[in-house]
User: What shape does this take?
Amino acid sequence: MNKAAQTSLVDRLTALSEPVRLRLLRLLEKEELSVGELARIVQLPQSTVSRHLKVLSDGGWVVSRSEGTSTLLRLVRDDLEQAHRALWHTVREQMGASAELDEDNRRLAGVLNDRRGDTQAFFGRVAGQWDGVRQELFGDRATVQSLLALLPQTWVVADIGCGTGNAAEVLAPLVAKVFAIDQSDAMLAAAQKRLAGVTNVDFLRGDVEKLPLKNASVDAAVCVLVLHHIEDPTVACAEMARVLRPGGVCLIVDMVEHDRVQYKHAMGHRWLGFGIPQLVRLLGDAGLVDIRFSVLPSAAEAKGPALFSCTARRPFDKTPPPSPAGKSARS
Assistant: This one.
């Protein structure tokens, strides 16, 4: 191998030596993206991403083109030199799968969704102008909040692990009664302060694994970003099933499976999210049916793992089993 060829190989390998650059190349193989879009996806400052892209560009890995005031970049595998192409194929295969790459994929989808919205606003000026006027006049939550009015006004809802009362605040004007339940006196005090003057919210101190509610006493049980803190989710799900009336609905919102182990130490998380099979088993063991699991769209600027919503219903003709106090969700 002559000196020039050896130098070229070293340069190519050096460009691929940084994990962030591998993530960028993987994204640019999928889509043509701007520096700003890449920064939103990989959650790094734009200056940092630009520095990595310069290394990749100097190494012949990416090409760029101008579109208006933007510069778009792309890895076009078929345009690479054969040696580059073979090396990238080998490296990409070795990357495998990881929670970090899954989050990159979800944020990429969010960026592309935003871009489609921008394109539609550009080519359909009337619709775009109306969306802007509506948001300016009424905010960006008006549509979602108005759709919540579809909830039956007669419902009694348990907000389990209510925290500072953000979910109870949304639900209270729409239903007959909300039970705001939390094991922390400080959280309950914050929720009471937040909902001062709201007359259809009862604040109850209690554990998720031993709810202070009677059997079949609520129409819906809502558990938002709580389950990952619970030692035994099996018992918690069984408790939610116990307090539901026949036909009642359970809603769990939590994180999808991830590998951010630091959350256990920094925030006391007991579980690194949940997957579909695990939730189906937990809720099925609790006697619930019609289980629906969906990953929520991720905002490109969101720094945490993706969230899911999972609903299940207590059947009309079956009494849920009692709380399996000795059974573990790890089994």
Summary: The CA atoms of residues 221 and 250 lie 5 Å apart. DSSP finds 13 helices and ten strands in the chain. The first helix runs from residue 3 to 15. Strands lie at 33-34, 63-67, 70-74, 156-160, 177-182, 201-205, 218-224, 244-255, 289-295, 307-313.
